[in-house]
Structure formats: structure tokens, C-alpha cells
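Exercise: predict the fold of this chain.
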Amino acid sequence: MNMAEGNGEIIDDTTKKAEDRGDGEKTEDYPKLIQYGLDKKVAAKLDDIYKTGKLAHTELDERALDALKEFPVDGALNVLSQFLESNLEHVSNKSAYLCGVMKTYRQKSRASQAGIPTPPVTVQAKGPDEDKIKSILERTGYTLDVTTGQRKYGGPPPNWNHSPPGNGCEVFCGKIPKDMYEDELIPLFEKCGSIWDLRLMMDPMTGTNRGYAFITFTSRDAAYNAVRELDNYEIKPGKCLKINVSVPNLRLFVGNIPKSKGKEEILDEFGKLTAGLMEVIIYSSPDDKKKNRGFCFLEYESHKAASLAKRRLGTGRIKVWSCDIIVDWADPQEEPDEGTMSKVKVLYVRNLTQDVSEEKLKEQFEQYGKVERVKKIKDYAFVHFEDRDNAVLAMRDLDGKDLCGSQMEVSLAKPPSDKKKKEEILRARERRMMQMMQSRSGILGCDAFSMSPTGIIPPAIPPMASATAAGMRAGASNQPRLPLRGPMASARDYGKYI
């Protein structure tokens, strides 16, 4: 009988030899898989998936087929079984999704071979309420696109004829219960304003969410309303959300660099490899202050520059000082609580021109009370008041005011975190980087790993967040972190002048 090309329909060809078809009936796409070079068992398994209707041959691209071809047969069969068991209802790119399943399987396998336990599943991934999701999608006309790394609702909304929302329209939502999905989050955030999109970040290793999401609203007012209404909101008994207006992530984590390299050397080397690099942040080893900890943070001029750098450095093909580096986004850190922020007497002032001097700033702000000192760094500054009430008054009055041809953005600076907590974060990052290096190849590189009487002291791992909430940047936990509005500046410099 006649059939459309690659549609997965069953062949009824009695003239075909049974040995050519394999055991049982095959679809007309089975010979294509064999011709492509897939093992017969893998091709048969994939052909069985075609028969279920969950996947058509035309939905697979060469990248997915090439990856399957390179997989060991047993591994490929396990990957396809996992793919078949997955809920693909909202998956728009099934080829990319299959590649994601293969990547996760490979990571778990390498971790197992290196003796590293996989992340424990603390909650069962029960999945969202599909009836509720269906109702939400029908009511709003939005789409839901699922990958192994995130679940994205909307973006843009139906009939949207405007430019995408700008800075200040997105919020970071942290401390989400791991078994929660958009069917419960969307109704909550809709109360604050019109949603552009909601991205719930997923952990493919466990099948649960990562505990955070990003919600972009169609206006800044809605975003700030979400902060006011939902920050510290108890979404489940004993589970309170943490909401902050987020900013474009400008900072990358780079692990497994030689400990002997200094800040200028790192800046020069990565400046040759990537465009838009503005700053390098390193931390000294607790055992030898002349050495770094085996990792650094790279800060770029824009999110786009950071994204391009991450893509280039993260291919695995670029070695830096003969080292296989680890590259990812810097991860979020917890915000200081309201009690801490209520004592802050330092203002963060950004969007300053070169013409604005520390003297001009002091003169401008001292109209509201005694200013102890001012420190300007590039296009932003920190203004230290003697009295908090005067600082708050100046913030309210001067935010948005023109100074030397540019509108100032003024808000409270975030104080440095506890030094002990910072050290714990750095040591945890070191342990995680060692795990990543072992799971990647089982081979340790460079001199980023120091020896101890009990073995190797591990250096760091890349964080897993794809964007950063304002003031929640990794690597700045001992420095004043920046305010909720506007792009993140280099608050680390402020710590030198406290």
C-alpha cells in the first residue's frame, strides 16, 4: 500500500524477506535507520517508538541520529526506553529532547564509573496536573514548551505586537518546592500582572525542578508588584518563596585553571579567546595566598557577550594553559533578609558618566545629610551616609535625577555576607568542581587540585543557574551585593573600601 515519506506507518510488504525486516513488522523508516548506520537492535527499538506515535522519523535530525549511532548499544537501548517513558505532550523539539536524555544518561554513567553518587531524589517527580495545564493553556492561548532543562510557558503572549519586555520586567523566584510545576505557579503570578513567559528550570538528573524559575512580566510595575506581594510568600506549609527582580547574567564560572595564574594573566588569556571581557574575579587559596583556588569568575559587558563566551569556551575543544576547563553561569546566592537591609546606610548609584567625580557625588548627596565617603568605580559608585534615614531620603529623591547628562539609578547597596558562610560556599564549589572533572573524564587536570593526607582536596564545580537574580551572583558572597534594580555592577570592589 502507498504511504507518505517518513510518517511511521506500518509496511505491509509481503515481498520483503523476514530477515530484512527483522523480528516483527517494521515501519518503512526502519531501513533508513539501518542505512544510516544504526545497530539493528537500536534501529528496531527506535522503530517500535515510531509505531507508538510518540515520535516520527521526520522529527529526528542528524544530530540525534549521529549521537545514537555513537552510543554503546546497551546505552542507546536504555536511552530510548527512558525517552519512551517520558511525557512528550508539550515537547516541541523531540530531537533536542532525545539529545538531552542522552546527555543526562552519559553524565550519570560517567559519575557512576568515577564512584560519584548521583544526586539523591528527595521528592518524587509526580509531574504536573495535566488537566490544570490544559485549562490554563486554553484560557490564555499561551504555549508550553518542555525540554530536559526547562519548562517554558508563553513568550510571547498571543497577539503581542510590541517589543519584548526590557530590563526590570523579569523576577527570579527561588525556594520553589521541588515537586511543584507551572500549573501551581502561573495562577499565583498572574495575580501580579500580565505574564510574558515563565521558565521553570528542571534537573534532568532527578526529574524534579531545580528550585527556581524566572517569570517575565509585560511591565516593570507587574514585576515589582510580584516582589512586594510574593516575596516570602508561604506557598506550602513551611515553604516560603524568595522573589527578586532579576537582571541579565554577565558572569561566568570557569573551573580547573592553574592555581599559579594571577588575575592579569587570566584576564589576558581569556580576553584573547572571548570578546567583551571586562573583569576577572579570583579567590586566594586558604593555604597559599599567592595562589588562586583553581577557579575564577569572568564578567562581561553584556549578557549576549557572556552567552557567546560560554558557548565558545564550553565546547570542550578549547584548552586554556593545556587544561580542560569547566564553564557555566555563576550561580545565585541568597539575598540578605529584611532585618539586615533595614540597617544599610550605603547607597548604590549606577549609570554614571565619566564626568561624574567622587567630589560631585558627595556634593549632590550631602544635601540630605553627612556623607562619610564616596567610592566611584567605573560607571557606578557607593555613597556611605552616617545616618540611614538620610540615605533613604536621598535615595527616594535622587533616583532617576539627571547628573552630568545621565539619569542616576539609586538604591540601597547590599552588605557583605558572613565570612564563614563565604568560605563554606567556596569549599562546596571546590568539591563540586572535582566531581564534575571526574564525571567528565575520570582524569584530573592542571594544578588546580592540591593534595592532602587523605587524598585530593577538590576544587569547584560550575553552578547550574542559567540566569541570575539581582545581587545574587556567585563569587561575591563576601562583598556588598547590589540592589534589586538595574544590571549588576562589580560590588566586589566595594569590599576594599568598607
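Check your answer against the key: The radius of gyration is 26 Å.
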